[in-house]
Fold this protein.
Amino acid sequence: QLQLQESGPGLVKPSETLSLTCTVSGGSVSSTNYYWGWIRQPPGKGLEWIGSIYYSGSIYYNPSLKSRVSISVDRSKNQFSLRLSSVTAADTAVYYCARHSFVGRLGYLKSFDSWGQGTLVAVSS
Amino acid sequence: QSALTQPASVSGSPGQSITISCTGTSNDVGGYNYVSWYQQHPGKAPKLMIYDVNKRPSGVSNRFSGSKSANTASLSISGLQAEDEADYYCSSYTSSSTHVVFGGGTTLTVL
């Protein structure tokens, strides 16, 4: 059974870089059938897609965050990671990693079919 | 402001049926059959309930169904149960540079 688990600091100072890792078990980030994505949810608010990465390194980012976001994949560790720079209080949220299905020949991103439990990251001095 | 528009809240009594709408544009909901619906209970991760407009993942009750007409997708729940009380989010592929868009979410209350 596929499981995803987020890990990383729960508190980040303003202007610093938020770093999270998602460890995948029961499946492989090297799968040719899926992208691997990050989604966040500020307290009491809705979901916001951050970006998704394919095992080959192909990446899609949300344009609203693109200038501050970097997503990478480590196939040897079966992990993928998120870095968000120059954080402010507005970046305080629960961050989820998830498996992201797509239309192979067109690259259209579709649904998130398996999610991690989420990790709360607060931005505060 | 979310790219897809959902009602903030809906309610229904046990056993009844409800429908949640999700309105987008021809660049997303109306143009592609890649609408998904997620259920989120308080403090929990979202769970995929419907994908590709009307397909149910294995294990999801057949009380949940999806449909689409023009630029509006809908999630219907029949035979409402107390456990269905949750937030529901729609999502779609979009041909814009955003790639993926979510609705603002709808809180379902089972009276």
Notes: Chain A has a mean pLDDT of 96. Chain A is about 0% helix and 55% strand.
